Amino acid sequence: MGQVTKVGVLTSGGDAPGMNAAVRAVVRAAIFNKLKVVGIKQGYHGMIQDRMEPMTSKSVSNIIHQGGTILKSARSEGFRTPEGRKKAFENLKKSGVDGLVVIGGDGTFTGARIFSQEYNIPIVGIPGTIDNDLFGTDYTIGYDTALNTVVQAVDKIRDTASAHSRLFFIEVMGRDAGFLALRSGIASGAEAILVPEIDTDFKQLYTFLEKGFNKDKSSSIVLVAEGEKISGGAIHVAERVQKEYPDYDTRVTILGHIQRGGSPTAFDRVTASRMGVSAIEALVDDQKSIMIGLVNKEITHIPFNQALKNKKKLNPSLVELTSILSI
Amino acid sequence: MGQVTKVGVLTSGGDAPGMNAAVRAVVRAAIFNKLKVVGIKQGYHGMIQDRMEPMTSKSVSNIIHQGGTILKSARSEGFRTPEGRKKAFENLKKSGVDGLVVIGGDGTFTGARIFSQEYNIPIVGIPGTIDNDLFGTDYTIGYDTALNTVVQAVDKIRDTASAHSRLFFIEVMGRDAGFLALRSGIASGAEAILVPEIDTDFKQLYTFLEKGFNKDKSSSIVLVAEGEKISGGAIHVAERVQKEYPDYDTRVTILGHIQRGGSPTAFDRVTASRMGVSAIEALVDDQKSIMIGLVNKEITHIPFNQALKNKKKLNPSLVELTSILSI
Amino acid sequence: MGQVTKVGVLTSGGDAPGMNAAVRAVVRAAIFNKLKVVGIKQGYHGMIQDRMEPMTSKSVSNIIHQGGTILKSARSEGFRTPEGRKKAFENLKKSGVDGLVVIGGDGTFTGARIFSQEYNIPIVGIPGTIDNDLFGTDYTIGYDTALNTVVQAVDKIRDTASAHSRLFFIEVMGRDAGFLALRSGIASGAEAILVPEIDTDFKQLYTFLEKGFNKDKSSSIVLVAEGEKISGGAIHVAERVQKEYPDYDTRVTILGHIQRGGSPTAFDRVTASRMGVSAIEALVDDQKSIMIGLVNKEITHIPFNQALKNKKKLNPSLVELTSILSI
Amino acid sequence: MGQVTKVGVLTSGGDAPGMNAAVRAVVRAAIFNKLKVVGIKQGYHGMIQDRMEPMTSKSVSNIIHQGGTILKSARSEGFRTPEGRKKAFENLKKSGVDGLVVIGGDGTFTGARIFSQEYNIPIVGIPGTIDNDLFGTDYTIGYDTALNTVVQAVDKIRDTASAHSRLFFIEVMGRDAGFLALRSGIASGAEAILVPEIDTDFKQLYTFLEKGFNKDKSSSIVLVAEGEKISGGAIHVAERVQKEYPDYDTRVTILGHIQRGGSPTAFDRVTASRMGVSAIEALVDDQKSIMIGLVNKEITHIPFNQALKNKKKLNPSLVELTSILSI
């Protein structure tokens, strides 16, 4: 392994707004550093299928504001097999690609770590997922945009919440992590927030909702992460509450993939731009098997290994905040 | 019944963006025409409970852009009874209110027609509902805003639709009417649109979806009105399709009350403003038991009776359009 | 001139949101009608430069929601000359293009009319301009989006308008026509609206503004069309008012090209889709030298000649509305 | 000075989105901590005029998402005089207010520091300004929202930028600080960014613009902070460039007060909520003459004195980023 001369960039896993801004930064920083750069379509799947194309500064014009990813994303069963990874490496070799930037979440980095070890190819990861559940970075690309998408949706629901005894249950993404639910709940003034990390205490929820209605609150909004453990998501939580309080008028909204799309926010674009440039600089500086992070506003490097084996925790001061603000 | 001197204005039924713009126009046009004007809170319910307050030009400052309704809306069981309506009339009489403007949908106008007959009080209706299902007007207040809300949501989902064989089912409002689903489906480029007026032909839907996937479409979006008859909404349609095609990756979004909120569009604000002014002018011109309509860009009057007993039909040329545009 | 077999489509003049939705509809309707279809880049300029490319259903995937125009637009000095038009025609002939759909404003249709006469080629126009100043159609593509852009901008300014005696002058597009200023002014609750069609009466404006400040209005917003005649736009109007009232705090916003961009509204997309399909149907039906219009919700045809020689007028009932609503 | 029992809260200086979220948090945290709380209207001006009203949890319902400030803001000449401050203090005393939370920028804190010294009243400041120019905090409330407002405006302009040799100059706020221009410029992919901190090098700008046009860039966007020193803002920069390159088509947009309005982003709402709660906790903990900051994601306290006498600097790594990304 010598100096990197030609970089491949790919996006993998669930889409996250800002991935395009990261791709743009990777491509332009590569060119700025006199490296060649190719885009690999559909993540590891495309690497196996040899779907690569040279990228120029112009290839990434006018994409900074676009949701989704111009490189497309895909899951790849093949890359979980030694044969698949062998084929992938042969394709890289054929194309002269001797360094990779992979943009995605923990699945993406797990694959990257194994591949890097097997074939001694330097790989740098950029965290792109709306869940913000990656250890080693304060923010992942897409999280801020998804937060704003949820908040704008809840704002609209609140506009309509003039009827008495109405309860809205809004399901947001997050199978294992409640970051999105917690922070969007605070930002939208939700009355209660149910996350995977904390088992729902229905007794407490009932007390709380009753108190709200006795205070003549016109309505209450409950944010439910899809990974809520006790009932298993908003529809089931709503059914349970409805059974307990037949007079309440309960309504369910499931935001679904809306949260993965949309034009990225300023914050996600700047973060993606900084991370993209830093990923190339890390390759130039002979780094490998690391994820770029943003910690305390500064760019950091963290080994894939650390990022994967540690678990990021909810900020307890934010959890506490909700009980103060929803009085 | 002589000349109207003091007008009561209320909003009733489901919230619709633009109701505030209509209230503002009613209040200011009343003042412009030297009438007194009071706001009645929570619709007919508040009329029975005597929740009225005098309105000035300033009471309606800075509300034209707000979703929801400052007068709040509510359902009223009481107003369905002769006793409730008697109480309501006594409250109006006590306050000197001798004319009403009611903003809402067909439930609102049904109540208004009976009340007007029983107590000989002139009432003018303004169509406010996101469903656009009222006969006698091309557009109801809130419809254009809801359309844009749905379209923006579908745009975000499309951003993320890069994976192969993915099927999105998005449920939009419309228990009995498919206007919202049809028009937002065209505007968002949906691959298929399921409405209450047309029984879903699953065979045809399957053929269509298969064709799309064979063409290597990266994903397909199906808009489902909540009143879809055969399966009963998006979740059940998705389950049925999933059973037929276990390999497809199906996802469901339920927009719910998001569609009733949000800042009204320019179109809804202008329509609401025109209708509000016209409602007052109609009262000044001794009209009663009519709904204000917007037909071919001009303000019209239609008797409540006609508005209620006729059913608005989907525009067949729009139905046809979808088959041309989704090829 | 026989039956059309291959259609060329272009966009010309100033960008308008929704042009892409129209291009998509033209392409897909052509294919639906078994016609071949090519996209001509950069309007008439590209026709002279022979910049054409075949279009398929897939070429127009995922563009319905995009602002701008994938075909790009340009002004063409060459097309004003017989030589330029000769070259353009030769290029069309070479490519086998025997019918055109041109999307733009009056400059676009003027060129189309002359070209159609000279070379006996059928041309159908689609009105695309944010100014809505074309005779023969109630709405032009882009107008509704631009309206909402202006209204959202004014909403934000109103949020901040808590200081006393503050006057905001906001310049919107419209060199010769005040449609955008008038309708967005009504929708945003502007205190005064200055349009090219009506000479600004500064005396009346002063009286009005004084009245507002005496009523303790926290601020006033004046929409100024860039074609305002007496002072020549918002900066000069503001200077004049400032000189008269040195104590007022006057601020100017110039929206500029923001108004030409953005994702098109539902209304503009549906209108564009209908017009695009209708343009192809008109060509199939042997029509030429006509503009597609939307009049009273129905598609109409109007000769270029009529569209060009008549002038659309401001709706007097909307002009009157502002004086009622700003009391 | 003993334990605080009754808190007054006010907003002062230019509006910033998120101020309402901060007011809500201050009020609810005060109630949570068993303190009484009053809202002071129109900043220091209202303190002198005795415009105070008791606040309850309900007073701040449904304001978290609203732009502007429900307490209104105003400049106060009176508070610069000893007599004015004496009157203000007497009013506070009369009402029993023995602690203050002031939300605003450096002008606000300068007044607070003097007032606190003169009358020994504990005051805690919350940084609320779109300029983000306060030393001692990474982010001020309103900055993130303003960034997104600018970015969305530039996105729309870019949509329309298909013509060749077109140059857009967009003026954003920032009389003395370029934070808003720099970060929004990176996020919107602007070709050049002119800030007050760095003298504009027109030679370099010309070289850069020429290079862009030679590369057949369809257009270029230059962000200009209003405090740009050499020419004095976007209109003058545009005139200068136009004179040098008469063939370029230059256009100017002045965003103005649009940047101060709009519904706050998730980030601004969460920051405002945290700061509001922390401000009350600081008062309860006997703190005075401090500004609440957010540094490295944690709440900090900084003496007014330090916040006022130090100057925050542009992040040099962001300045450098633009030269890499605009190649």
From TrEMBL, chains A, B, C, D:
EC numbers: 2.7.1.11
Record-level GO BP terms: canonical glycolysis; fructose 1,6-bisphosphate metabolic process; fructose 6-phosphate metabolic process
Residues the record marks as active site: 131
Catalysed reactions listed for this entry: beta-D-fructose 6-phosphate + ATP = beta-D-fructose 1,6-bisphosphate + ADP + H(+)
Phosphofructokinase domain sequence ranges: 6-283
Binding annotation for ATP: 14, 75-76, 105-108
Summary of activators and inhibitors of this protein: Allosterically activated by ADP and other diphosphonucleosides, and allosterically inhibited by phosphoenolpyruvate.
Subcellular location: Cytoplasm
Pathway: Carbohydrate degradation; glycolysis; D-glyceraldehyde 3-phosphate and glycerone phosphate from D-glucose: step 3/4
Listed GO CC annotations: 6-phosphofructokinase complex
Coiled-coil region list: none
DNA damage among keywords: no
Pfam families on file: PFK
HAMAP family reported for this sequence: Phosphofructokinase_I_B1
Family the entry assigns: Belongs to the phosphofructokinase type A (PFKA) family. ATP-dependent PFK group I subfamily. Prokaryotic clade 'B1' sub-subfamily.
Protein's recorded name: ATP-dependent 6-phosphofructokinase
Native organism taxonomy: Bacteria, Pseudomonadati, Bacteroidota, Bacteroidia, Marinilabiliales
